[in-house]
Amino acid sequence: MSEKSKKPQKLKARLPRGFVDRHAGDIRAVEEMVAKIKAVYERYGFDPVETPLFEYTDALGKFLPDSDRPNEGVFSLQDDDDQWMSLRYDLTAPLARHVAENFNEIQLPYRTYRAGYVFRNEKPGPGRFRQFMQFDADSVGAPGVQSDAEMCMMMADTLEALGIRRGDYVIRVNNRKVLDGVMEAIGLGGEENAARRLNVLRAIDKLDKFGEEGVRLLLGEGRKDESGDFTKGAGLNEEQIGKVLFFVGIKNYAESADALAALVAGTSKGAEGVEELNLIGALVSGAGYDSSRIKIDPSVVRGLEYYTGPVYEAELTFDVTNEKGEKVVFGSVGGGGRYDGLVSRFMGQPVPATGFSIGVSRLMTALKNLGKLGQDEVLAPVLVTVMDGDVEAMGRYQRFTQALRNEGIRAEMYQGNWKKFGNQLKYADRRGSPVAIIQGGDERASGVVQIKDLIEGKRLSGEIEDNATWREARVAQVTVPEAELVETVKRILAEQAEDRARAK
């Protein structure tokens, strides 16, 4: 076969791995959720800011280029001036760059929020995507832990604004300084013990999954799971393990605060961390947030290499069924903490900061589980059908369509092959259109339109057994003067809304 006779290969349509197409329902659900979150942030006096999707790679901090092509965790490309740029990994590092670059113009404390996509160059898996949305709030230039307490209160208010009831969530709070103090108290302070400290943190982070006994094994020699695989432990002795388990096992902070202070006494920052936790507890309780809403919880260890003081996590406490059919607690939907060192990388001077991030997709899943999202159904458009293709008729159909739109009613004029009228009604049915507007030559001559209630018509059609009866019945259809078109459509839509409300 000659080259000329070969058929060109069709391009295969492929969605890149780890990415998803978003459809109308999810887009509207996210917009609904984001609007409610913004309203809370604005009430607290925060203002929006937006940074670009790309940053110079060295600005991302954690992912400095250490090879010819920096690709550890981030998607990177080289600019035309040979500088490496990367898609942002989170929303915090770009904010730190923005603050440092505009430091002289920014009013401190700089209280800001932003929602946007972040990107991870990691292997995708079930529920794990390479692009997802975060919604952050940060306060830069505020050194006191009252800022951290306020963040926790704002997280609680946000969850309640989204319809999550008290008792279905808790904001858990810990402090990096206290944990560092505990590490120092058991002899794991200093840079030389960094690796062992990381193993201890990883063990603590498994408390919810494996329970106290599983963590005890991981703090010691190690743990064998059900499959027989062995995870090497942190190698602590019994005394060290006892102190760590006391710390992470604190259930009632008020009753244990003195014992915790004694444990970290003499360490470089442990006592300071305990004082900060005590102050956060006093501030939130004084504002009316009891421990069922905001709780001091030493088992919180989220991303502790990143934080320098208080850390907090928003957890949903109701049960859901996982993919194995098991009942499990839904878990974390966001969190954050104090990161006093991040802006300082650019400044050469200390710049305190605290903030939190909400995982939008995960929180949206939770709200759908609770039936708190997507309840406000978006109506399909009213369909203006086309019975005649001449210029005058088409102009009238377009005028009807615009008149409906100008009154806030979703409407569209049929755009397909108008000569097959049956196809127009089939299209309306597939779209879920609530109403169809019909005007043929006879109606046009009389200055009237037919308005068909498609929802009621569909219901009544089940009661009609033959085509002759159908044609005679003209089911759920009225004829009105053109001037009454909009008001009649409004009345029909209102009646349909009442019927839906009664059905619920």
Automatic annotation (TrEMBL):
It catalyses: tRNA(His) + L-histidine + ATP = L-histidyl-tRNA(His) + AMP + diphosphate + H(+). Keywords: Aminoacyl-tRNA synthetase, ATP-binding, Cytoplasm, Ligase, Nucleotide-binding, Protein biosynthesis. One of its GO terms (molecular function) is histidine-tRNA ligase activity. L-histidine binds at D90, L91, T92, R120, Q134, D138, R302, Y306, Y307. CDD domains: HisRS-like_core, HisRS_anticodon. GO terms for cellular component: cytoplasm. Residues 1-381 form the Aminoacyl-transfer RNA synthetases class-II family profile domain. Belongs to the class-II aminoacyl-tRNA synthetase family. Homodimer. This is Histidine--tRNA ligase. It comes from Gellertiella hungarica. The gene is hisS.
